[in-house]
Design brief:
This protein has about 1000 residues and is α+β, with helices and mostly antiparallel strands. It is built from 40 helices and 28 strands. The radius of gyration is 28 Å and the shape is globular.
Amino acid sequence: MANKSDYYLLSLLIPFFTAVAFLLHLTACTPMIKEVTAYPYTTIPGDALHTRIYTLKNGLTVYLSPDADEPRIYTSIAVRAGSKNDPAETTGLAHYLEHMLFKGTDKVGSLDYTREHTEIEKIITLYEEYRSTEDPEQRAAIYRDIDSISNAAAQFAVPNEYDKILNSIGAQGTNAYTWVEQTVYLNDIPSNKLEQWLTIEAERFRNPVMRLFHTELETVYEEKNMTMDSDSRKIWDNLFAGLFKKHTYGTQTTIGKAEHLKNPSIRNVMNYYRSYYVPNNMALCMAGDFDPDTTIRMIDEKFSVLQPKEVPHFTPPVEEPISSPTVVRVKGPESEELVIGFRFAGADSHDADCLTLIDKVLFNHTAGLIDLNLNQQQRVLDAGSMLVLMKDYSAHILSAKPREGQSLEEVSALLLEQLELLKKGEFPDWLLEAAINDLKIEQLKLYEHNRGRVEAFVDSFIWGMDWEHYSNQINRLRSITKEQLTDFAKKHYGSNFTAVYKEHGKEKSEGGIVKPPITPLKVNRDTLSVFAGELLAMPSKDTAPHFVDYRKDIAFHSINPNTPLHYLQNRENDLYSLYYVFDIGKNQSKKIELALDYLSYLGSSQLSPKEFSCELYKIGATFSAFTSENFVYLKLSGLHERFPEALQLLETLLSDTKADSEALDKLKAGILKERTDDKLSKRKILFEAMTSYGKYGPASPFTNVLEDSELKEITPDELIDEVKNLMQYRHRVLYYGPATATELSANLKRVRHYPQNPLNPPAADPFIELEQDGNTIYLVDYDMTQAEVIMLTRDDIYNPEQVPLIALFNEYYGGGMSSVVFQELREAKALAYSVLSVYRTPKQKDKHNYIFSYIGTQADKLPEALEGISELMDRLPESPELFLSAKNGILQKIATERLTRSEVLFNYEEAKRLGIDHDIRQDVFKGARTMTLDDVKAFHKSHFRNRNFVMLVLGKKEQLDLETLQKYGPIKELSLETIFGY
């Protein structure tokens, strides 16, 4: 399910794309100004993205990059306004406005705006009264009035109409994020619906209405609760508070203070909108299948309704130099971690170029100083380096987790030691060139997809960076010498850092936000605003779907009689990906994952582990292994011109592995520490350990690991034999790259000895999913603000004939922001930030389907949340309008989706595992066209009503209503040892 997410949280969960997206096109050229009718634009000769940059009369900046690979367009509308612009007395305002931009306007989402407006004005006044009142009884009385009038206003509103419209036209990934200096609105739309999308987006930004305010405010409260449960959030907030004593990067947070969220001002939100959401402070960024000349005229026609205005000027405070380390200690329930941050100049500076290279020299996952000296030698756990590039300042962050018995001070010394090596120039001369090649590869991968192109445009705009300068960074990096880099490091890395020591323990909370008395809003599902009706009636040219024809789209060859090759040629760029795929995995061997992990610390008789990593990085190649329950992938990827050398290196490692007892001892110790850490991770506990226990009981794929005693006894030879035995199993080779099939086959045969009589993989999966005899509640006690719940119901064995109806049912019932589950539990009742309920199909045939429901909510809302989910499982809300939206959405998405590149190969892999010989999307498209709401109702009745379930509850036991939980079934409290199996 897509959630409108806070960007600074996302930045903690995935690698910072700001560091990646900043690497752009190589050509150093002079921008050219061209004119098409009345629309002059800037372009850069040789730009691989064919970017056109327009500035319309009202000041709106438009970035266009045409790409006809598939009939879809990725879009972002970026506003130069984020949490750094929040008033100090109402932090979190930019983020809250982001949420409200999904609520519609006086035309979108309203059935009678004149009458609705009257009620909304009353609510606005009441909130001003509420925030200036201190007496608890008076505040409670005012809130009751807000709740009552909100229900009166809601009868004139259509909740989630924006989302419904976007879903109806086949949009995907409808979302938004707020961060320090930007708020960005995202959509991936069918190209034949471009006019409809532009129409609704121009309307969306014209006059947003603060409707359904108090329930959305509750959703933001829930998001705040999520951050209060996040150790990563504590690290982030304290690190930036240490680095930025004056700048709002550090003095306030994106989500805002709890006390400010408790006392909101709708007037302040609207004033913020009027100040910053003006066309001369916005950019519309698009990449995909469109004609730029036609498109820019359409954009101008639609968005000319927005009027320019002077934007408040933000003067960045000048930070004082950091002369000595700032050390901050925080505590949280998850494992220990150290993060060290240095402050630098902003993204559009020479600092940023030097930092980009330094980051790669330190950490590139293969041959950086941190990679070789810390991770490969296993001196710490999970060491890394990352950049955070922002407009006014930037941060370079080093991080690592301690090994067993290691202090955070020792971890700090090891990280800082790598900076000393950098300053002394103790890294090979070739590393700079290899790092730049690595950046080029990242750039090529980024620009293979329209989303990557658009993210680059957004960064360029938000940072106020000329596109030519942005695109020319690789050339600038080539001019930086090793001496210049070391001089920069000597000058900028010293005692001028902030270090956050995240320890395991309990820390005083900001204080939870108490559940307010909210009367569920009436949800007008079966109505449309006049605007929505007219927009959906707009004609558009149909797009014919294209399905993968495996026999035509994939070339099937044989390397030898026992080893098939599935081949697809890359005619787009110079990158290749090669996979060895084995139908044997962790379920069949407890040792295989450990053996492949061990392999990453080894070399051959000719090359030490360090030498092997360096040789691989020199030629722009990467090797990785992925282990699943029932299959293994070995992947080699990189630049085509060095493919033969990379293949030879890989095969040498696989066939001539040299044991290292010390490396294995360290690996064992690291695994034992990680097992302890996993028991502190609430995500690991709930979504892996508890979920697996709920499906299988104590003996499950998750617990199918070596006992601690077995782990300690295992030898290097056993693990090397495990890898060699793996290579004796029957497997297949997947390839997507520039080489011809003949060239590829010759290279593979030249370096590899394939067994004449390969072993067949085991025929059966050893684990059986449990039948559910009555309801069971499994509870794990964990120190947290929220309570998180998963409900599981085992259903029928997978049947591909059911897939079309399942797809349509999920779209209608619980798979997105316009679904009935989302509307009922989040929009109408404000019970959660994240909620979904779907009918999940397995990844392999002969496995069961499951009803999977999840909700994360305040502990004091748990009874209402469970009641809400249960009601929806017993009674399906009926809405012909919502069904039509779901149906149209599926048809549009499938009609405009194109599987490309290696996606084709993996689509075939997925089909074969499910016993299907064709692209299943073809069945879904055909079936959905003729299905009715009655089909969805019948599916719900036969699969959801009166079903037994396993309920998995993770929360602080003393805050949970156990009496309510017992109404759903007997409660069994589980220990971490029970669910983890060690």
